Fold this sequence. Notes:
This protein is of the alpha+beta class. The protein is 30% helix and 19% strand. It has helices at residues 8-12, 28-39, 89-101, 112-121; strands spanning 45-46, 51-55, 61-65, 69-71, 76-80, 106-110.
Amino acid sequence: MSAPNTDVAAARRHPSSLRSRPDAFAHPSEELFARLLTLYGHEWLYEPLEFPLAWDEFGRATKGFRPDFFLPAQGLFIELTVLEQRLVTKKNRKIREFRALYPEFRLVVVYQSDFLELVAKHQLPFDHPRAA
């Protein structure tokens, strides 16, 4: 049995490529957003990478951030949140941690108001559940 990797810098540079939900979206808004990306001709991947944000004393990830979408042609990650603004504090903290640890990756956050504006612009049906 090998010793655990305690090189946090090395672990930070190797995000997990295992997808947590390969066949389903976590929220209806993500499925609708994926349809919009497809409509505009963007190739996208759903939750392709998880980036460690914190580690235990053995170098194992204890907290992570998995952006919702990746657009390979643009080298861009997209995080979609349809939470009400007053509830996004925890998600915003993870986004700040991600940006501090991984400045080489581009990330755009699409908040509830932006998403609802897109839905209205395209006259898409969307019953706004209170989660995501």
